[in-house]
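User: Hi! I'm working on a homework problem where we have to compare a predicted structure to a textbook description. Could you give me the structure for the chain below?
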Amino acid sequence: MSHLVLARSIRFISLGILLIMAPLIGIGIVQAAGSLATTLTGKDGAPMALIPEGPYPMGVPKAARDGGVDERPNHEVFVDSFYMDIYEVTNGRYLQFVTETGHRVPQHPTDASKGLWKGNMMPESVTDLPVINVDWFDAKAYCHWAGKRLPTEAEWEKAAKGDNDWRFAWGDVEPTTEHANFNQLAWRGEATLVQVGIYEKGKSPYGIYDVAGNVWEWVSDWYQVDYYQQSPTHNPKGPETGKYKAVRSSGWQGETPQMRVFTRIKSLPTDRNNSTGFRCAQDIQTPATP
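Assistant: Happy to help. Predicted structure tokens:
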């Protein structure tokens, strides 16, 4: 297939996806009376939810006895208002990005069987599954193209649990198959993942879906094991430099302990694998002064 034909076929799928999804995601902005819009639609067509400013307890809950050294101590963090993608970035939306920018397609670096795309083509059956096999730079590039950015660790955790000091996005009840896609033993191709946004019981207090299970999510911060011991109290953005990037959420293979909303892991920013994706955040737009 020629490059031109491939590009046309990709655009056809992308536009079809957008036309089909438009009634579902409600293109436009829902304005809360006298305040910021509670939801909006990004340049990429993805619905976003307002995460209001305020303090919250970050890290292992005070009453918990588990958690890693890098997830302690529990500390109060203030985060300014921002918007967060309600869903993880899907293959359908990533296809639009690839088509418009010529960015590389999401492929596993060593094993094609651990991917969802067939070469340069995206099967329609994976349209609404979260994109995988993207490294930190791919995720950053997508968010920049969409007029957004990767969330910080502090923003991600605030969006995932609100101002609550609990273990999971939905409370302290341990996860079941009604909360998330997790605890799978082996990769089974596209059947391993599920469509974004189907677990009503697993969404966060702000309506953010899939903050546990399905895929891990890149965030903007460099990873540092003792960062919580020295973290700023207002809008922490992580260390200035590092070797690894922080990754949040948990993947399809995660067991119950990894489903905790405060779970942190690290990964080389160039790592691409079949269990890591991302979602984007967006700053509040300040009206221009006349």
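For your comparison, note the following. Residues 1-34 have pLDDT under 50 and may be disordered. The CA atoms of residues 57 and 76 lie 4 Å apart. Good luck with the assignment!
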